[in-house]
Amino acid sequence: MTHAAVGFGPSLVATATGRLRSAVLVRPNAGLERLGARIGEPGAIYVRACEQHEVLRSTLEYFGVETIVLGSHAGDPYEVSAADSAVVFEAGAVMMRPTPMSRRAEADRMQAEFAQLDVPLAGHIASPGLLDGTDVILAGETAFVGVGWRGNELGRDGFAKLASARGYRVVEVRLAPDVLSLRSVAGAVAKDAIVVGGDKADIAAFSGFRTIVLERGEELAAGVLCLGERHVLADLRYRTALARLRGAGITVEAIDLYEFTKLGIAPSMLALPLKRE
User: C-alpha 132: how far from its chain's center?
Assistant: First the structure.
């Protein structure tokens, strides 16, 4: 399902946590069932994942977000993590180079889709650099870049140059060894506020930002998708974390995305923001 109501033009992500107006999703594939759960639960069920993905799409559209839903073209179950392919700035998209070899073609397919949508390019991570889009969080005028088992120094340095040229201060965030991506354990909820899973990311890296720290066992709840300033979409399974967010003045829309959470895929990983105001 593709819509074309939102014009992309010269201004894409004008404000990193501004109102989300358009996003790309990638449908899940049956390969989800081949993965073991990362959180001690039974593996993901493909049919349920498809149902939850459709609820995500319809929820976004309810809140005024135009969704562009792409079909799956690969057997890699993590292809559903649409945000790995690119990071979008105000003037264009920077194409990533995902770490797993099985996912390298995803950025090329996304770039082809951007050409159809008239989304301009602002750069790309070149070989042998590696960087996944979900290891980047934009907040205010800062670009946080996760340092974990994915990506490499060449990819991070290349992205840092591109982000710095666009006025962003770049800060690296050390991740625990078992963390899939920065966005699975941290998220921007406002231009000056970050929610983070306590012992999964270096909280000191977020100095200068208000931090909402989640307790151990609920760190995956930090991977919220920002719908606008202090307005996020989250997995409903984490009641303690959601209560903490609401207590901090954040409006939370909670839906069931547990088939993805089982695999360490957070809401913010499932949507690639194309336009924010």
Answer: 10
Contact 75, 34 (CB under 8 A): no
Residues in the chain with pLDDT values less than 70: 1-10, 39-40
Q: Tell me whether residue 12 is in a domain.
A: no
CATH number of the CATH domain containing 32: 3.75.10.10
Q: 10 Å Cβ neighbour count for 110?
A: 23
> How many whole angstroms separate alpha carbon 34 and alpha carbon 49?
13
pLDDT in tens, 178-192: 999 999 999 999 999
DSSP, collapsed to helix, strand or coil, labels residue 72 as coil
- Give the model's pLDDT for residue 34: 85
- Closest by Cα among 177, 172, 171 to 199: 177
Number of domains in the chain: 1
Identify whether the C-beta of residue 107 lies closer than 8 Å to the C-beta of residue 96: yes
For the chain, what percent of residues have pLDDT higher than 70? 96
Q: Which tokens sit at 168?
A: 């962003």
Q: Locate all alpha helices (DSSP H) within 96-190, ordered by sequence.
A: 104-117, 153-165, 182-185
What pLDDT digit, counting tens, does each position of 61-95 carry?
Answer: 999 999 999 998 877 899 999 999 999 999 999 99
Distance of CA 165 to the CA centre of its chain: 22
Query: ∠35-37-39 over CA atoms, to 5°?
Result: 160
